[in-house]
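Memo to structure team: turn this sequence into structure tokens by end of day. - J.P.
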Amino acid sequence: MARYDFATHRLHVPADLAPEAVVPLEPGALNYLLNVLRMDEGARLLVFNGRDGEWEATVRKPTRKTAVLALQRQTRLQEPAGRIRYAFAPLKSARLDYLVQKAVEMGAARLTPVLTQRTQLHRLKDERLQANIIEAAEQCGILALPVLEPEIRLDRFLATLPPDEILVFCDEDAEIANPVVALRQKQPMAGITVLVGPEGGFTEDERARALAHPGLLRLSLGPRILRADTAAVAVLTLVQSVYGDWTGASVKEM
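Reply from structure team:
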């Protein structure tokens, strides 16, 4: 039997989930189930909240315009969060949406917007970013929602980064070498932070600050200069293949 049920609609709900619980629906979710999916009494779906695993639920309609979810059984236990943080310079509109969605799909446990001198966007809409996180989790069978951390200036971010945390620094000036070999040469003792800069790259001062981190791991992404949103997928693939849950090892956060 497949691990995930992709044939059934999944919905994120903020409420606690427990046996025989009745879960109220927020207006947006209510409209989605009744008017978009046109679910009727007894319709089946899967729900999760990022804390209590995944549950099978059925739609109950007290009235024509209202509905609640009746929990039936737990289908999957809650998964632990991973240990990879993705720190990124925000991009504009649709490309930022894509970047956040792909980082969630790739298993990032924390998302940290860092403001650089060449950052294209300085006023982030947290609600939009959170909606992208939830949508990606709903579509990809993810149970542990990544934490969206407050935006922070790059200098402050680097200054507060623990010295024993690996900083995977995507550096176009790094020697082009096998990135998997480079990652395997440094074993993480604490967390893992992946840092990708803005379009136009880091300034020399910013590069110098990043290169001074004790846990630095400079990584080349090949002979081509990748766009920032493409680099997100490329580097998270590499990191997951060496340090993350692609290895089959425990993903419990350190």
